[in-house]
Amino acid sequence: DAGITQSPRHKVTETGTPVTLRCHQTENHRYMYWYRQDPGHGLRLIHYSYGVKDTDKGEVSDGYSVSRSKTEDFLLTLESATSSQTSVYFCAIKTGGIDYGYTFGSGTRLTVV
Amino acid sequence: GDSVTQMEGPVTLSEEAFLTINCTYTATGYPSLFWYVQYPGEGLQLLLKATKADDKGSNKGFEATYRKETTSFHLEKGSVQVSDSAVYFCALKSQGGSEKLVFGKGTKLTVNP
Description:
The complex is a heterodimer.
Chain A: E1 4-7, E2 10-13, E3 19-25, E4 32-38, E5 42-51, E6 54-57, E7 64-70, E8 73-78, E9 87-95, E10 101-104, E11 108-112
Parallel strand pairs in A: 2-11
Antiparallel strand pairs in A: 1-3, 3-8, 4-5, 4-9, 5-6, 7-8, 9-10, 9-11
Chain B: E1 3-6, E2 11-14, E3 19-21, E4 23-26, E5 32-38, E6 44-50, E7 56-59, E8 62-65, E9 75-77, E10 86-93, E11 101-103, E12 107-112
Parallel strand pairs in B: 2-12
Antiparallel strand pairs in B: 1-4, 3-9, 5-6, 5-10, 7-8, 8-9, 10-11, 10-12
């Protein structure tokens, strides 16, 4: 199985504070993704990366930035958290070959108060 | 743009009942199609996939057939168990350059003993 871990698993933060979520993979996959999951919306793509320093926006990118300085790490930053960013955040990697598909991390539950 | 439409939930069934969760999609060409399952409190797990028309994906008693003519990928299981209670997501990846996974909104299934 592709190794993918997210940290932290849970976080409570105050409105207006910066927050960084981390996604770490162990197998050098090129593509990494950040999604948010909200009731009634399914999963929506925030940003994704197709290589070191190569990133692009998804459908709900406003208020978020990302960085990928190493293949194994993909960081999601909320520059100034708002209550509308309370959500569960999932990282994913794209795997190829016989195991073609997308593998997801366990998620980070973020609450902005 | 690409999109996925799933039947509205929640769906409640008795154990050993037949399950169908409808999924239709909008995309150009021949996308790859996926079903993911999310058990309570967990991340998403790939349930099955199909990458070309008429392919049938199967896993754990679940099946789905890629129907290009009806742009559908309906999930079926002949006899559900209580342990199948979860949220099910249909998703697609477009044919060609975009490596993004697009999700439906999810269907919550509850199976009662």
